[in-house]
Amino acid sequence: MVTTESWEAIDVWRFYNQRCCMENYIKEGKNGFVIHRIATQSFAANEMDLLLKLLAYNLFERFKLQCCDPIQRSFTIQRFHREFIQCAGVLVPSGRQFTLKLAESFQNRWAWLRMERKSILLE
């Protein structure tokens, strides 16, 4: 590492090592939540668009932390979408409620049901 700081080598490493994941967070924001696209010519509208995308990113990270098993906590939004959202199922109306009926062949059925139970218990 090259730096202009006059620190001990271990201190330089510790300081810059804290920042090493930031590029991965930015890449996740770009690929999963499209934060790099400018929606309009209006600065205020673009600011709101970015804030909503960052809110969605933070909610997704919080959901993974609180509701997912340790193996799914490392999933990117793209992998999570591929593993859980793009699955065969039918949304069945019943009175005033809708019920999601998952296909019997859904590979991650039990993980989905665990996440569902954990999310219901959240306040």
UniProtKB/TrEMBL annotation:
InterPro entries: Tnp_DDE_dom. Residues 9-107 form the Transposase DDE domain. It holds the Pfam family DDE_Tnp_1_4. It comes from the Bacteria. This is Transposase.
